[in-house]
Design a protein that fits this description.
By secondary structure, the protein is an all-alpha fold. The protein has one domain: Orthogonal Bundle (MetI-like fold). Helix content is 69%, strand content 0%. It is built from 13 helices and no strands. The protein is elongated, with a radius of gyration of 25 Å. Belongs to the binding-protein-dependent transport system permease family.
Length: 295
């Protein structure tokens, strides 16, 4: 009697959703580089007092407008302050304004869009007409107006940029909710008698949050760029607090003599904004269930 032959079948291990997400997110080298830049930015902002070689606010007029040297790698500004130290501390202002304004706009805008899309009717009309009125004003013009009215400063910049970004979140969330609201499981929840609040928090919002996360990531770069523009115009972070935009403004008068005074903070703005945009684009691909399902 012949022995029973065993046949082994190697079934490939199924990847979890998180593994698929990471694989799509890190599929391109440029995304990894961008994430590294953002990680470095966060580390520099957190540990600025220990990384900066000098106090960014200490003035030394006798040592003003010095070219790059061993003592001052990027030179000094018109008040004798170390440029590298001010760039390091300026990363704090950029991150605070970026994350705070995006969080403010995301929470308020998403809430308004959620309410308008779910309940509809006259409430939807009132909210969206107000959003249309805000959208009629270019965001940078609205931010400039609010920044001037609030008198600048860190809080004023956050509020100005946050209000300017609210309509984009409201419109996006409303569109997502109106699509999800017609799904069978939403109707089943309504028929079963659960409250509107529970239906929104448990069934509607989790299925609408992915595009909001992508938009928030993209808007981080926009907010940092807008903060630099407001600071350049004197409506951003108040001196002597370091901000990349105000540093570009202070240094452009000496472009022919010391171009690094403007180019160094300007390069930081460009790199950070590009990094956020690249990561946001990769995040959009990674959160697409159709793309993840093809892996």
């Amino acid at each position: 009697m012949e022995a029973t032959q065993k046949v082994e079948i190697n079934v490939p291990r199924r990847k979890s959703e998180f593994q698929k997400f990471i694989k799509v997110l890190l599929a391109r080298k440029v995304v990894v580089i961008s994430l590294s830049i953002l990680f470095l930015l966060v580390v520099v902002a957190i540990f600025a007092p220990w990384i900066a070689p000098y106090n960014p606010y200490t003035q030394n007029i006798a040592n003003s407008l010095q070219p790059p040297s061993k003592e001052h790698i990027l030179g000094t500004d018109q008040l004798g302050r170390d440029v590298l130290s001010r760039i390091i501390y300026g990363s704090r202002a950029s991150l605070i304004v970026g994350f705070s304004s995006v969080a403010l706009a995301g929470v308020i805008g998403s809430t308004l869009g959620l309410v308008a899309g779910y309940f509809g009717g006259i409430l939807d009309s009132i909210i969206m007409r107000f959003m249309d009125a805000l959208l009629a004003i270019p965001p940078i013009v609205l931010a400039l107006s609010l920044g001037a009215a609030l008198g600048g400063g860190l809080v004023g910049v956050v509020v100005a940029l946050g209000v300017a970004l609210i309509p984009t979140y409201a419109r996006l969330m409303r569109g997502q909710v109106m699509a999800v609201r017609e799904m069978d499981y939403i109707k089943a929840g309504e028929i079963s008698g659960i409250s509107n609040l529970r239906n929104i928090l448990v069934h509607v919002m989790p299925n609408c949050i992915s595009p909001i996360i992508v938009l928030a990531t993209l808007n981080l770069g926009i907010a940092i760029l807008a903060e630099a523009g407001l600071s350049f115009l004197g409506l951003g972070v108040n001196p002597p607090q370091a901000a990349w935009g105000s540093m570009v403004n202070d240094g452009y008068q000496y472009l022919s003599r010391l171009p690094g005074l403007s180019f160094a903070p300007g390069l930081c703005i460009v790199l950070v904004v590009m990094a956020f945009n690249i990561v946001g684009d990769a995040l959009r691909d990674a959160l697409d269930p159709k793309l993840r399902g093809s892996l």
